[in-house]
Amino acid sequence: MKHLISPLDLSPDELSDLLALGEAIYSSPEKYSHCCQGKKLATLFYEPSTRTRLSFEAAMLNLGGSVLGFSSADSSSAAKGESVADTIRVISFYADICAIRHPKEGAPLVASMHSSIPVINAGDGGHNHPTQTLTDLLTIKSLKGRLDGLTIGFCGDLKFGRTVHSLINAMVRYPNTRFILISPEELRIPAYLREETLDAQNIPYQETNNLETVLPELDILYMTRVQKERFFNEEDYIRLKDSFILDKRKLQNAREDMLILHPLPRVNEISTEVDNDPRAAYFKQANYGVYIRMALIMTLLGITVTD
């Protein structure tokens, strides 16, 4: 039995197969519409989510399966003090596969150690968000045609942004990848990521607090919101939340084929006037999330569809 706790749980070959399956499902969704009939997905969401939870549910329903679960800790036995380990032991009797989101880093890993069904990490604190990473990879591969030789700019909250951390760890596997890290000093990427991933593997990167000067270099601009829920001090949040806002004027300096990605939800870091720009791909990105989660559910359940 295999779990997905980190993007690195998948070997390059497994990841390639998964992305190929995601593209196949995107091209012919009707072919896969009954392959999980009789299977149940449990969604254990201990913190709020819209896209991730609903895209998991849509994915399973699109595959012909069914869904059960909860959307907040308050509506589960966690409110009574039940541990994640005990919860997953019980859920293993009720479902065939589980997706868990938790505010504490490492909670999905703990769940996987006590589970008798495959566990998918749907986000744990500021640590990992592997299915968002898979979504990002499928979006880039589908729209850019490749995953190597790209200059990727990450902008905004790079300290607490688990989507950023996960995607950096995934993209360093591809040759000739270069990163430009755009953030306020207070929200730079964590030291461990800089030292253990980028420096240790001699990955070229640049850190800056000026978005406009580096825009012309980027193949992909990955915007993130400054997350209020990750701050201990509201004054710091208010001071930093508007640090980087993408608008039409700034985009005048960007490449015509640059992709603008964002894991969503957006607050005000991308002006709504950008939505109609052909480079804006963040809503397409949300759509790709359903198809890659369909591919992941099938893969972890060992389900294949033959021609």
Report on this structure.
Helices cover 37% and strands 14% of the residues. It contains eleven helices and nine strands. Strands 7-6-5-8-9 form a five-stranded parallel β-sheet. The mean pLDDT is 91.
How are the strands of the largest sheet arranged? 7-6-5-8-9
Beta-strand fraction estimate: 5-15%
Q: Whole-Å distance between the termini?
A: 26 Å
Low-confidence spans: none
Shape, per Cα inertia axes: globular
Number of strands: 9
Summarize this structure as a short list of keywords or feature phrases.
alpha/beta; 5-stranded parallel β-sheet; 4-stranded parallel β-sheet; 9 strands; 37% helix; 14% strand
Produce a short descriptive summary.
This protein is of the alpha/beta class and 307 residues long. Helices cover 37% and strands 14% of the residues. It contains 11 helices and 9 strands.
Topology summary:
Layout: H1 12-27, E1 40-45, H2 51-62, E2 66-70, H3 84-94, E3 97-102, H4 107-113, E4 119-124, H5 130-144, E5 151-155, H6 162-171, E6 178-182, H7 191-199, E7 205-208, H8 211-214, E8 220-223, H9 234-240, H10 248-251, E9 259-261, H11 282-301
Parallel strand pairs: 1-2, 1-3, 3-4, 5-6, 5-8, 6-7, 8-9
Helix pairs in contact: 1-5, 1-11, 2-11, 3-4, 5-6, 5-11
